[in-house]
């Protein structure tokens, strides 16, 4: 029999909990005071005579420290109210059904809205450009999701395949006068080839070691692009990259243009709408291919590798080919996105393929939920589109971005739509006789 707790235990526990929260908030405020003292409290600049001048902003510093103190209290109270991450939450049945229905509706509604964006915002170039950028990162996120989310291989150099695809299309189109539709598959094949080359050195690596090698690979590709000036143009990049055509018909104002053939007035928005639907089609092909691959034996091998590499080998799965196919497939879609980026910009340079791009794409995959296609799309929309919402905040924009990532990782450690459900599972539970699981008979 369990003993009853003495009277007054709950108030004592509450007092202890309140003291712990205040102590934690105070420590957070002290850390913020130390970190922000030189960043916010003191501002320095070069004076008119070359000397260093400074002035204090103690009011801003006090406000930031107070925000950290009270924010820490709010976060801890919400965490205690919400409970541990892995515990079941008490939610009414009606609310649970509503959320389940909303989850099934979000993806089709988002797709329908995306298809209608060029129709709704036809004359708003800024929104069309932003939509193209978001879809580009959605495609990159889905490509990296194969490597990180499905196979569980941490890749910090994914921008290398993005760069290979872009430079492959630019060099083939400018030197051999090939069309976009011919160069697009070639760019994907070349990027997949480099993905296989990356896969061989990392066959025996896992975790942090794998991340370091992939990071080095991305930097090697960038340095080669900068220094091989006779081929890549070096820091000057490659300009005059041909634009894509619609079945060989250019989207130009001339007599041979699409508008003249259709007998309609030419508008610069025609090319933007075409590029929007082009990247949307490429992204949907990436999504469809990923979903199909997950249901194939290679997709199940990726998931087994992600869960436990030792158990994967014990099952007789060839981890060498499994890793190589993951790197090659993810790199191929990165190459497709790079080719589109090159034809959209008309100019590429090494500054577009830095480690910041790899970090941003990886953040999209992690925040969206590794292995979740819808989560990656929502994360790309939030991160890329969210930057535009906070553009007026200037230097505080990155601070808001970092805080949002921290809060999301606190409440949703597995991402917006994080799940690790296996592709193949039993639809109905089956009872197993105890005679079949005895020692020596299982």
Tell me what you see in this structure.
With 442 residues, the protein is mainly alpha-helical. It has 16 helices and four strands. Strands 1-2 form a two-stranded antiparallel ribbon. The longest helix has 33 residues, at 9-41. The chain starts with 8 loop residues before the first helix and ends in a 31-residue tail after the last helix. Residues 1-16 and 85-91 have low confidence and may be disordered.
Major sheet strand order = 1-2
Gyration radius, in Å: 27 Å
Reading the helices and strands in chain order gives: HEEHHHHHHHEHHHHHEHHH
Q: List the uncertain runs.
A: 1-16, 85-91
Helix content: 55-70%
**Total beta-strand segments:** 4
Protein traits:
442 residues; mainly alpha; two-stranded antiparallel sheet; two-stranded antiparallel ribbon; 3% strand; disordered N terminus
Give me the secondary-structure topology.
Layout: H1 9-41, E1 42-46, E2 52-56, H2 58-82, H3 93-120, H4 125-150, H5 159-176, H6 180-199, H7 207-227, H8 229-232, E3 238-239, H9 258-262, H10 269-295, H11 297-307, H12 309-314, H13 319-345, E4 347-348, H14 355-368, H15 373-389, H16 397-411
Antiparallel strand pairs: 1-2, 3-4
Helix pairs in contact: 1-2, 4-10, 4-13, 4-14, 4-15, 5-6, 5-7, 5-13, 6-13, 10-11, 10-13, 11-13, 14-15
Summarize the model shown.
The chain is mainly α.
